[in-house]
Design goal:
The chain is an alpha+beta fold and 708 residues long. Helix content is 45%, strand content 20%. It has 3 domains: 1-26 and 35-43 and 354-387, no CATH class; 44-340, no CATH class; 406-707, TolB, C-terminal domain (Neuraminidase), CATH 2.120.10.
Length: 708
C-alpha cells in the first residue's frame, strides 16, 4: 500500500512539474513578440482535425503495442505482458520519448517492461531495438513513396534525393548493426574470449546480457514472422504521418491557408525533418526548438517563402501533439500504477529482507520525499498559472454598449466643454476591436480615425495638433501587457495617410513636431525623425546606466530639455523597496526612485512630473504632481463617486487641461479589458469638476487632448 501511495504521489508531482514546464513556454519560453501569433494560431485550431488526429493516434498506439508484444513473444519471453498492459507501456513511452535529447526517453519503455511487468532485460532491449530498426525501414518506404510521387509529378527535388539517401543509409546501418554486426561480435567473444564471460565483473555481466540479447534477436529472425513485423512497422509509420498531417491541417487551415494547401509530400517531408531534428543529441525539453528548426529547414529547401508562418505552424503542431500525448500518457501512467502486477516475477532480483524498524523508516522517508516532490510540482505549476495571468487577457474583451442615460449625460458634458477649441483622442473597442477615435470638444461629435483589424492604442497628438502617433499590434488581439508585439505609426490628421515609423515597440511620445520616442523590445528607447526615419538609441537598459542588463521598462518619456528619462520598472531594478512596480528618473545613467506607482510623465512645459500612485486615502489610484528635484508629491486628481480608479494622465500642450481614464475601482484595473471612461479636467479646479467625455461600457483607454 505504501509503495502504491508513494508512486501515485510521485507521479502526480512529476505530472504537475511537466505541466508547469509546458505552461512556461508561454510565460518565458516564447519571445514576447511571437507569443500573440502563437496564441492566435492555437486558438484558431480546427478541433475537428484534432479529433481526427486523436483517432489515428489511438490506432497507431494499438498497432505499436501489438508489434512490441509480438516481438517480445517471438524473442522467447515466457512472461509476456497482455495486449492491454502493452498499450499502457506504449502510451507512456510515447509521452516520455522526447523528454531527453536524441530520443533517450525510449529507455523508459525498457524500464516499464522490466520493472513493471518482469520482462527480461534482453527481450525489452531486443524488441525496442528491432522496432527502431524497422522504423527506419518504414521511413525508407515513406520516402520512396514521396520520391515516386515527385518523379511522376512536377519533378524530383533535391530534398527528396537527400532524404532518400539518408533513409537508405540509416536503414542499412540499422540492419547491419543489429542483425549482422551484433551476432558476429557476440560469436567472436564466445570463440576467442570465453573467459570474458566468466565471473562477476561488470564486463562479464554486460557481455552475458549482449549474448542473451543476440539469442533474442535470432529467435525473432527464425520465427518466420518478419514480413508481418515489417508490415506493422509500415502501417505504424503511415498512421503516424497521416495523423500529423491532419494535425498540421488543424493548425494551418484557418491561420495559414497557403501552408494548408501545400502538396501532401511537402508537409510529410517537413514532418520527417522535424522528427530528424528531435532525434539529434541537442539539449532541449520535449525537443522544442530542434523539432521546429528541422521542419522549417525542409520547408525552406522546398521553396516555401514564409518562414515565420512555417515555424509558428510547426511549433503549434508540436504543442498540440505534446499536450495531447502528455494528457493521454498521464492517464495511462495512473492506470499503470493502479493495475500493475503485485509482484515482479522471477526476472528481477529479490531484495534482501529489511528489519521492521528499518522498513517503517524507509517507508516514511519514501512518503516524505514523494510529498516534497508533489509540493514542489504544485508550487511550480501554481507559479506558472499565476505567471500566465500576468500576460494579460488572451482574448479580446466584449465590445460593450452605450451606457445607461448616456444621451442625458452627454448633453451635460457638451455644455461644459463646447467653448473649447480642440479634441480628445483615445483607443476604444466599441466597434469590436480597439481603434483610435476622436471627440471634437466643440461639437462633441465622435469620429473614427483608424479602421484596422489589429488592435490599435496609445494615441499621442503632435504639439501642433496635425499628426497622431499610435501603436498597432502584430495580431488582431494583443494585450497591452505585451509591450513588444507592436509597431508604431504616424497618422496625418488632414490627409489621413499613415506611415510606419517604428517596429517591435510601443509607448510613443512626441519630442517636437517632427521627432518621437518609443519603447523598443521593452528594453530600449529610440528617437525617430518621422520625416527622414533616421533613428538613434537614447537609452538601453544595462548600458551606461544603473539598470540591470536586459531589464524591462514601461512607458518611458524623455525630457529633451533636461535630457532626463522617466519610466516604470520593477522595484528591484530601480532600487526601491515599495510595491511591485515603481517609477524612476534617469539622469546620465543614474536613476532615482520616485514613488510606488506608474505612468510617470513630464508636463507639457517639461518642468514638473505627474504620476499615478495608489498612495491615496481611499486605496485606489489617483493622480499626483511631483517636483522632479525634491520628489514632493501633491494630489492633482482624486475622483469621488462611481469612477475612482484614475489612470493614463496626459496634459494638453498648453498645460491648462488634463485628460485621463477612470474605472470603478482597483478590482477593475486591467487596462484593455475593463470599462474605463475618459474624463477632461481643468487644471486647478476641484476633482469633481472633471467632465466625462465617453459614455460606453466597452474599454476606452490611453487618451490625449489638444487645445488650440
Amino acid at each position: 500500500m505504501t509503495k502504491t501511495i508513494f508512486k501515485v504521489v510521485l507521479s502526480l508531482g512529476i505530472s504537475f512539474a511537466i505541466l508547469a514546464l509546458l505552461l512556461q513556454m508561454f510565460t518565458t519560453g516564447l519571445p514576447e513578440g511571437d507569443r500573440p501569433t502563437v496564441l492566435s494560431v492555437l486558438q484558431a485550431t480546427s478541433i475537428g482535425f484534432v479529433f481526427a488526429f486523436l483517432g489515428l493516434y489511438v490506432l497507431s498506439l494499438l498497432a505499436r503495442a501489438y508489434r512490441y508484444r509480438l516481438l517480445i513473444i517471438l524473442g522467447g519471453e515466457q512472461n509476456a505482458p497482455s495486449l492491454r498492459q502493452m498499450i499502457l507501456v506504449t502510451g507512456i513511452r510515447n509521452m516520455v520519448v522526447d523528454m531527453l535529447p536524441a530520443r533517450l526517453g525510449e529507455l523508459g519503455y525498457v524500464g516499464l517492461l522490466n520493472r513493471g511487468y518482469g520482462v527480461k532485460l534482453q527481450h525489452c532491449v531486443s524488441s525496442l531495438s528491432i522496432s527502431i530498426a524497422l522504423d527506419f525501414i518504414a521511413l525508407l518506404v515513406v520516402v520512396i513513396f514521396i520520391v515516386v510521387k515527385q518523379t511522376l509529378g512536377d519533378g524530383l527535388t533535391g530534398w527528396a534525393i537527400g532524404a532518400l539517401v539518408m533513409a537508405v543509409l540509416l536503414s542499412v546501418i540499422a540492419v547491419l548493426g543489429l542483425f549482422f554486426i551484433t551476432p558476429w561480435f557476440t560469436k567472436s567473444i564466445v570463440i576467442y574470449r570465453p573467459n570474458w564471460l566468466e565471473g562477476g565483473h561488470w564486463r562479464a555481466r554486460l557481455l552475458n546480457l549482449l549474448q542473451d540479447f543476440n539469442q533474442s534477436l535470432q529467435a525473432v529472425l527464425s520465427s518466420g514472422k518478419a514480413s508481418l513485423v515489417v508490415s506493422l512497422s509500415v502501417l505504424i509509420r503511415i498512421l503516424k504521418y497521416l495523423g500529423f498531417y491532419l494535425l498540421f491541417q488543424a493548425v494551418a487551415v484557418n491561420s495559414f491557408p497557403e501552408l494548408a494547401g501545400l502538396p501532401v509530400e511537402h508537409i510529410v517531408s517537413a514532418l520527417i525533418g522535424g522528427e530528424i531534428g528531435s532525434s539529434l543529441p541537442i539539449p532541449a525539453f520535449m525537443s522544442f526548438g530542434v523539432y521546429e528548426a528541422g521542419s522549417t529547414l525542409i520547408f525552406q529547401l522546398l521553396g516555401v517563402g514564409d518562414q515565420l508562418a512555417t515555424f509558428v505552424t510547426m511549433l503549434c503542431v508540436h504543442i498540440w501533439s505534446q499536450a495531447l500525448e502528455y494528457l493521454f500518457g498521464g492517464l495511462l501512467v495512473a492506470v499503470f500504477l493502479l493495475r500493475r502486477r503485485g509482484h515482479y516475477g522471477s526476472n528481477i532480483d529479490e531484495l534482501a529482507p529489511v528489519p521492521l524498524s528499518d522498513s517503517r523508516a524507509r517507508k516514511f522517508v519514501m512518503l516524505v520525499c514523494a510529498g516534497l516532490i508533489l509540493l514542489v510540482g504544485v508550487a511550480f505549476l501554481s507559479y506558472q498559472v499565476w505567471a500566465t495571468t500576468k500576460l494579460g487577457a488572451l482574448r479580446a474583451p466584449s465590445a460593450g454598449g452605450v451606457a445607461a442615460n448616456a444621451e442625458e449625460w452627454q448633453q451635460l458634458s457638451q455644455q461644459h466643454v463646447s467653448r473649447l477649441d480642440g479634441f480628445v483622442v483615445f483607443s476604444s473597442n466599441r466597434d469590436g476591436n480597439h481603434d483610435i477615435f476622436r471627440r471634437d470638444l466643440k461639437t462633441f461629435e465622435l469620429d473614427k480615425l483608424t479602421n484596422h483589424p489589429n488592435t490599435e492604442t496609445y494615441p499621442r497628438i503632435s504639439p501642433n495638433g496635425k499628426l497622431l502617433v499610435f501603436s498597432r499590434a502584430h495580431e488582431a488581439w494583443v494585450s497591452q501587457r505585451n509591450t513588444v508585439a507592436w509597431d508604431v505609426f504616424v497618422l496625418d490628421l488632414e490627409t489621413m495617410q499613415e506611415q510606419q515609423v517604428g517596429s517591435n515597440g510601443t509607448s510613443p511620445h512626441w519630442l517636437n513636431n517632427s521627432e518621437i520616442t518609443y519603447l523598443r523590445d521593452a528594453t530600449s528607447v529610440e528617437r525617430v525623425n518621422i520625416k527622414t526615419l533616421s533613428s538613434s538609441v537614447l537609452y538601453q537598459t544595462g548600458q551606461n546606466n544603473m539598470m540591470p542588463k536586459g531589464a524591462r521598462i514601461q512607458n518611458p518619456k524623455f525630457n529633451d530639455k533636461t535630457q532626463q528619462l522617466v519610466f516604470t520598472a520593477r522595484q528591484s531594478d530601480i532600487g526601491s523597496k515599495l510595491g511591485h512596480w515603481g517609477t524612476a528618473i534617469d539622469s546620465g545613467g543614474a536613476h532615482r526612485a520616485v514613488l510606488n506607482g506608474c505612468e510617470l510623465g513630464w508636463s507639457s512645459d517639461a518642468t514638473r512630473l505627474y504620476q499615478v500612485t495608489p498612495n491615496g486615502p481611499d486605496g485606489t489610484l489617483h493622480i499626483v504632481s511631483v517636483d522632479p528635484l525634491t520628489l514632493d508629491a501633491n494630489t492633482l486628481i482624486n475622483l469621488e463617486g462611481e469612477f475612482t480608479h484614475e489612470y493614463w494622465p496626459k496634459d494638453s500642450s498648453n498645460g491648462d487641461y488634463f485628460v485621463f481614464g477612470a474605472s470603478r475601482g482597483s478590482d477593475q484595473h486591467e487596462h484593455d479589458t475593463q470599462d474605463y471612461e475618459i474624463f477632461l479636467w481643468k487644471r486647478g479646479s476641484e476633482s469633481n469638476k472633471a467632465t466625462r467625455i465617453t459614455f460606453h461600457t466597452g474599454n476606452d483607454n490611453w487618451p490625449d487632448v489638444f487645445i488650440r
